[in-house]
């Protein structure tokens, strides 16, 4: 089977590197330059071609998989799928830049992700639950190491969307990517008037409440925990904005 051609020109480096990879491969898969069933370059090859880290590559592949454009077989590789006929969701994550933008996005997320959490509680598999646990463990490890924990944070929310068994929840989350995490756009801890460790510890506890409800398969509890988590983020930012 022929190999996937490299991009015709050196790719520009967007504000979100993973989203840049998603856009590049999505365009080539939908345009037929990468045929259904064709194997994508290895992680190492993508890292070399685009000059990005392995973490960025894995986040991009996760989003492509969630959007139904790629399937990944562990130990074998990632393969292009037949693209669906639907159009792309028209929200540019690069436009989420101000506190107001983040608040508007949080309002949308409260509606969508609360229901996603309820569906995930009803439909999740044991394997998906294990992956959620791993994401939260990685979040806690990042918190202890003093890093931002953005990647496991996004992975936890994406896993919940994938566990709904409704591809449109995962499509939306995959499209927005880590832009859904407020601290990728603004200093959330500063606006919440907490130090960084306090802020992330609070987020971690809220995530644990969501996870526990999903583990118990308590749909209403999962909806309530997700709504509380996102509403807390919104209200902290709103109060800080009013004070300013």
From TrEMBL:
SUPFAM superfamilies with a match to the protein in the record: GntR ligand-binding domain-like (SSF48008), Winged helix' DNA-binding domain (SSF46785)
InterPro entries noted in UniProt: GntR_C, TF_FadR/GntR_C, Tscrpt_reg_HTH_GntR, WH-like_DNA-bd_sf, WH_DNA-bd_sf
Keyword DNA-binding: yes
Molecular functions (GO terms): DNA binding; DNA-binding transcription factor activity
CDD domains: WHTH_GntR (cd07377)
Keywords (A to Z) from UniProt: DNA-binding, Transcription, Transcription regulation
Protein name: GntR family transcriptional regulator
Organism annotation: Bordetella ansorpii
